[in-house]
Specification:
Number of helices: 3
Number of strands: 7
Largest sheet: 7 strands, antiparallel
Order of helices and strands: HHHEEEEEEE
Radius of gyration: 21 Å
Structural class: alpha+beta
Shape: elongated
């Protein structure tokens, strides 16, 4: 089996910034939303006397569906990448050691969890799929990065790469690592 190319920490930061600070992605989302609406208008405008009626109906529905999915995917993920890009430049950084557990029972969807002490509380972290590298289980030195306007930590920076927290991350009081 061929190994994936692993990005360095600097390359990961550059890639996250390129995505999160992009001006094109919001325009793509708006353009796809407009194309989706036009596809539905075209679908309702076509009647059975139009030449190529069935082909046009299928094309209109296909255009609307694909553009709608692309638009929703960009709108759902772009704000998270904006926060992560901001966190690579600024934010409060808490140094510590994180205990990472990688559950690879499903190779397509490895589950990555982490646990880290911060003050009197423990962060029970769940991460999304990393960008350009694969973490290993174990205890690692890291920086937990917080932004002022976000309640949860945005990312964890390790020596080998970045891990992005998911919405399932939570702060647990009174539990030790």
């Amino acid at each position: 089996m061929r190994r994936k190319h692993s990005l360095s920490l600097a390359e990961q930061i550059e890639q996250v910034r390129r995505i999160g600070e992009s001006r094109m992605l919001p325009l793509i989302a708006v353009g796809c939303g407009v194309a989706c609406a036009l596809g539905f208008v075209l679908y309702h405008w076509i009647d059975n006397k139009t030449p190529g009626f069935f082909t046009l109906l299928v094309a209109a529905l296909f255009l609307s569906t694909v553009c709608g999915i692309v638009s929703l995917a960009v709108l759902a993920n772009f704000p998270r990448f904006q926060r992560i890009a901001r966190a690579t430049r600024s934010g409060r950084r808490v140094r510590g050691d994180i205990q990472i557990t990688v559950d690879s029972s499903d190779p397509e969807n490895a589950r990555i969890r982490g646990c880290m002490m911060e003050g009197g509380a423990v962060w029970d972290l769940e991460f999304t799929r990393p960008l350009g590298w694969e973490p290993r289980s174990g205890e690692w030195p890291c920086e937990l990065v917080f932004l002022a306007d976000v309640r949860l930590p945005v990312m964890v920076q390790l020596a080998d790469g970045l891990l992005f927290t998911s919405d399932r991350t939570q702060r647990v009081y009174g539990r030790r690592v």
